[in-house]
Each structure stands twice: as C-alpha cells, then as structure tokens.
Amino acid sequence: MELRQLRYFVAVCDELSFSRAASRNFLSQSAISHQIARLEAELQVTLFDRSTRRVVPTDAAERLAPIARQMLALEEMAIAAVRPDRRRIRLAANMSFANRAMAAIAVMRDAHPDVEVDFIIRDFAARLASVRSGDVDIALIRGSLPESEAGGRTRLTVRHLWSEDLVVGVSERHPLADVESVDLQQLSPYPLLMPPQAQQRLLRSVIADAFDAGAVAVQWGPPIAADRTVLAELVNHPDAWTVLYAGETTPGVRALSMAPGLMQIDVNAVERADEPERALVRELVEVLVQEPDS
C-alpha cells in the first residue's frame, strides 16, 4: 500500500468521480483507476461500486476513508516537522480559486525567486483542519466560519479579503444565452439547478436573499446528484440556470453578469490565531486581494 494510492482513494471518495479525482490530482483518469485497482487487489476488497453510472463507496471504503485521511495528515505533519522552511508558504483552497491563486503565486515568485508557494486543493472541512494542524499557513474560504469550527483548542482567525459578484451560468441554447446582463425578473421563469441544501447552504442562502429582497419568486429545480456536475446538467437542461463564481466556465455554457452587488459573496482568509504573522504570508494576502489582471 502506498500513500499516493490512499491520496487518490480519498480524492475519489470526495469527488464520487474518477474523472474529477484525476483532475484534482493532475493525472489521467486511467492512472487513477489503475492505482485504485492496485489498492483493491492488495486489500482484497472492492472499494467502489462501478456497476452503475454512479461511483459509490462500498462499506469497506467507508471504513478505510477516515484511516486514510489520518495517514495522509500524518505524512504531511512528518514532512513539516523535519523540513521546517520559513521560505515556503502553503495555501489551501479549492479549484474555484485556482486562477487567482496561480496569478498570485507567479507574482510572489517574481518578487522572491527563493520562495516556494504551494497551492493545496482541499475541501472546506479539510482546509480548516489543515490550518488547525499547521499543515498549511492560510486557507481561502467563501462565507463565514461555522460556529462549530470557531472554537476548539486551536483558535482560528478570519480575515475578510474581498467580495465577489456571482454570475449566472446558462446553456448556449438557453433563451437568455445572448443577453449580456440579466436581472431576477428575467431568471424567475426558469428552473435553478443547484446541489442539495446540505452541500451548498451558502450559495442557496445568497440566492434566496436576493430574490426575497427583489420580491421575485425563484423557481428551484431538483437538486443535482452528488455524482454529477452542475455545468454538465446545464447542457442537458438548456432551459435551466445556475450561479457561478467569476471565471468558472466550460464549453457549452455561457456566463451572464448581473447588477453589481445583487448576488455577492465574501472571500475570507483563515489562519491560526496563535501563530505570529509572517511577512511573506502577509505579502501573499496583499497580492491575492488584487485583481489578477491588475
């Protein structure tokens, strides 16, 4: 058993998709599938049910997942313990921050050629856990810190960085596809596709508040299944729409603007409260706050 196999296994558990897990690890889907097959052969169990269009973790996978996460966290802690490097910054986020993060890293590298800035892809809970453990220096999140995460033995601080306007995503075949900017009245007749409430509580709240404030009814469509992507569902349902973060695009989908401030979300940085602020981390934050093309 290799740690990289556990890393790929955890990615498939998180994404419920071999293709998305492969993208997250910058590998081909066949490479991920091969490593998972090797892990299953070594453990002599089936970890994922591939008999349907969905990727479903088996009972064995459910038991292995928390242990695998612990082993990967221990690996990172061991590396950090024996290779402390104050010229290295570890930034945790998800893929929606990739463009902005990579632009900031390029600026930092130009200013400090001897500094390494790692961009670590983690889901929301894993980002907070990584900050608490000291595995990463800073994490980017949208929205506020949940009350359940605010306390604990290691306190976290939240720093507001910027606010960003959401955009509307529609299929190229949608009746509004050729409109540059839309309002709530125009969107009201069409179903809104989103993941379930438990997965997208923040975005659903922002949308509901905007429609309530405008006294316009929102037509909620059926929740998107965990093994499907919203953007792909838009292509399959050309009369529907969704909300996207700026820069999220895919072939066949158009991004339409809305009035500034109509649907806006805060982006925050999360750090350990007991860690003294490092000059390099402060500089990275200052670069991140700037628009990528400025």
From TrEMBL:
Protein name, as recorded: LysR family transcriptional regulator
One Pfam family, short name: LysR_substrate
Annotated keywords: Activator, DNA-binding, Transcription, Transcription regulation
Entry annotated with the keyword RNA-binding: no
Gene Ontology cellular-component terms listed: protein-DNA complex
Record-annotated HTH lysR-type domain positions: 1-58
GO molecular function: DNA binding; DNA-binding transcription factor activity
PANTHER family (UniProt xref): HCA OPERON TRANSCRIPTIONAL ACTIVATOR HCAR, TRANSCRIPTIONAL DUAL REGULATOR HCAR-RELATED
InterPro entries noted in UniProt: LysR_HTH_N, LysR_subst-bd, WH-like_DNA-bd_sf, WH_DNA-bd_sf
Alphabetized PROSITE patterns for the sequence: HTH_LYSR
Entry's family note: Belongs to the LysR transcriptional regulatory family.
